[in-house]
């Protein structure tokens, strides 16, 4: 089964809701200018929570070939969880995707594999597609444990999620040492782990699920590095931080084909 490439821009804590308008408009204009075909790759923008409503209104109002998502979601339905945002709230804002388990959440907010799993389950229950982030630190890579470590994170994140749902979700392999550092993994490094993730999903479920799940690479992806990464057989897209704030760069990444 052909997997549609997915290019997702994680804006992190950048762009207030006013700045978001300019960024999405410029992105849409540049995509059009480059002859972007939404059938050939998916273009996803992931603003901070405060920008989601504005971005939704712009995308829907102008019928832009862009979908949007959120950077995190609560594992709870509703209630006394100050500062949290529920999956239901995100679904009402037209979000298609939600990132769970980004390494910055794991690092600064102590998110564990169990919590990432609970968030993914909650997102799926409200019709959102989780982008589940996994990936090793430099220490783990230097110890040669990067494949085992990352596959263990995948197993933890998918615990109890049925094959039918796993087939539709997205896993982002993001080696922590490559995020925001300018240190992009080689295409071979990225393929090694993305291939192992697909084999693990196939072993946990079945061939069809393994072939269907989309796996992104993330970590300092730029227009100049995307083509070689996308040429690898088990890489179906990119999760992009810094370059997604530059409309020309992100449009070039989306239009990699
Ligand atoms: C990210 O935050 O998911 C990311 C990959 O960031 P950057 O592209 O800036 O390394």
From TrEMBL:
<feature type="binding site">
    <location>
        <begin position="10"/>
        <end position="12"/>
    </location>
    <ligand>
        <name>substrate</name>
    </ligand>
</feature>
<keyword id="KW-0963">Cytoplasm</keyword>
<feature type="active site" description="Proton acceptor">
    <location>
        <position position="174"/>
    </location>
</feature>
<dbReference type="GO" id="GO:0046166">
    <property type="term" value="P:glyceraldehyde-3-phosphate biosynthetic process"/>
</dbReference>
<dbReference type="Pfam" id="PF00121">
    <property type="entry name" value="TIM"/>
</dbReference>
<dbReference type="GO" id="GO:0019563">
    <property type="term" value="P:glycerol catabolic process"/>
</dbReference>
<feature type="active site" description="Electrophile">
    <location>
        <position position="102"/>
    </location>
</feature>
<keyword id="KW-0312">Gluconeogenesis</keyword>
<comment type="similarity">
    <text>Belongs to the triosephosphate isomerase family.</text>
</comment>
<dbReference type="GO" id="GO:0004807">
    <property type="term" value="F:triose-phosphate isomerase activity"/>
</dbReference>
<keyword id="KW-0413">Isomerase</keyword>
<feature type="binding site">
    <location>
        <position position="220"/>
    </location>
    <ligand>
        <name>substrate</name>
    </ligand>
</feature>
<dbReference type="GO" id="GO:0005829">
    <property type="term" value="C:cytosol"/>
</dbReference>
<dbReference type="InterPro" id="IPR020861">
    <property type="entry name" value="Triosephosphate_isomerase_AS"/>
</dbReference>
<dbReference type="InterPro" id="IPR013785">
    <property type="entry name" value="Aldolase_TIM"/>
</dbReference>
<keyword id="KW-0324">Glycolysis</keyword>
<dbReference type="GO" id="GO:0006096">
    <property type="term" value="P:glycolytic process"/>
</dbReference>
<dbReference type="GO" id="GO:0006094">
    <property type="term" value="P:gluconeogenesis"/>
</dbReference>
<feature type="binding site">
    <location>
        <begin position="241"/>
        <end position="242"/>
    </location>
    <ligand>
        <name>substrate</name>
    </ligand>
</feature>
<protein>
    <recommendedName>
        <fullName>Triosephosphate isomerase</fullName>
        <ecNumber>5.3.1.1</ecNumber>
    </recommendedName>
</protein>
<comment type="pathway">
    <text>Carbohydrate biosynthesis; gluconeogenesis.</text>
</comment>
<comment type="function">
    <text>Involved in the gluconeogenesis. Catalyzes stereospecifically the conversion of dihydroxyacetone phosphate (DHAP) to D-glyceraldehyde-3-phosphate (G3P).</text>
</comment>
<feature type="binding site">
    <location>
        <position position="180"/>
    </location>
    <ligand>
        <name>substrate</name>
    </ligand>
</feature>
<comment type="subunit">
    <text>Homodimer.</text>
</comment>
<dbReference type="InterPro" id="IPR022896">
    <property type="entry name" value="TrioseP_Isoase_bac/euk"/>
</dbReference>
<dbReference type="InterPro" id="IPR035990">
    <property type="entry name" value="TIM_sf"/>
</dbReference>
<dbReference type="InterPro" id="IPR000652">
    <property type="entry name" value="Triosephosphate_isomerase"/>
</dbReference>
<comment type="pathway">
    <text>Carbohydrate degradation; glycolysis; D-glyceraldehyde 3-phosphate from glycerone phosphate: step 1/1.</text>
</comment>
């Amino acid at each position: 089964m052909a997997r549609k490439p997915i290019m997702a821009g994680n804006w992190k804590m950048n762009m207030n809701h006013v700045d978001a308008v300019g960024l999405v408009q410029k992105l849409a204009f540049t995509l059009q200018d480059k002859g972007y075909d939404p059938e050939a790759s998916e273009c996803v923008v992931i603003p901070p929570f405060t920008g989601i409503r504005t971005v939704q209104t712009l995308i829907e109002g102008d019928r832009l070939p862009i979908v949007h998502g959120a950077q995190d979601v609560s594992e709870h339905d509703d209630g006394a969880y100050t500062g949290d945002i529920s999956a239901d709230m995100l679904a009402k804002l037209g979000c298609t995707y939600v990132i769970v388990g980004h390494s910055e959440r794991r690092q600064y907010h102590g998110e564990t594999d169990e919590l990432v799993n609970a968030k993914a389950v909650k997102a799926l229950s409200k019709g959102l597609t989780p982008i589940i982030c996994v990936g090793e630190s430099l220490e783990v890579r230097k110890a040669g444990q990067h494949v085992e470590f990352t596959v263990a994170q995948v197993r933890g994140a998918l615990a109890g999620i049925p094959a039918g749902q796993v087939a539709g979700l997205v896993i982002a392999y993001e080696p922590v040492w490559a995020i925001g550092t300018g240190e992009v993994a080689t295409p071979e490094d990225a393929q090694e782990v993305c291939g192992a993730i697909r084999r693990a999903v196939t072993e946990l479920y079945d061939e069809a699920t393994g072939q269907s799940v989309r796996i992104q690479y993330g970590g300092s992806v730029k227009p100049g590095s995307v083509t070689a990464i996308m040429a690898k057989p088990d890489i179906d897209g990119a999760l992009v931080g810094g370059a997604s704030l530059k409309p020309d760069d992100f449009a070039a990444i989306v239009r990699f084909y």
